[in-house]
Amino acid sequence: MRNHDNDAAVLSPHLYSLLNGTDLPDKQHVAFMLLTVTEQNWPHTAMISAGEIVALNPSTLRLGLWENTVTTRNMTRTGQAMLVVISGQAACYIRLSLMRLPDLANAKHPRTRFEAKVADCREDIAQYADIISGVQIRLKEPETVLQRWQETIEELKS
What we know:
Elements: E1 2-3, E2 8-9, H1 13-19, E3 31-37, E4 43-49, E5 53-57, E6 60-65, H2 70-78, E7 80-87, E8 90-100, E9 112-124, H3 142-157
Antiparallel strand pairs: 1-2, 3-4, 3-7, 5-6, 6-9, 7-8, 8-9
């Protein structure tokens, strides 16, 4: 979506609400696809949960990824990624322009942190069908994971 005030790319209100780091118990079953490009120019897909991403505002997100993964290395190298979110009967494709943030010295859950500007946000809605689900997960230890997610979101905000 475009913000007509300054023509900058922004998340829709629905996407912002989904990614704003609140109500994590209600979002525990949702996962998103995070696409990057390898050094060999192959697409690479990873999953990211609601506890690893937070929208600070409609145009800026923060991501906390596991250290030294293919996705983290790709994002560090290229400064780009695409977040794919299936929600609200739409497939949403969010191009991100990334900047790696310094590590937090006293992080309870060390992550490689990125700040992401929304470079483009496109919502694809089918006229002939409703999109009813995307990637869904079931946490094996919900209490432990939700606590870690909440702590990770707070660390991403700092």
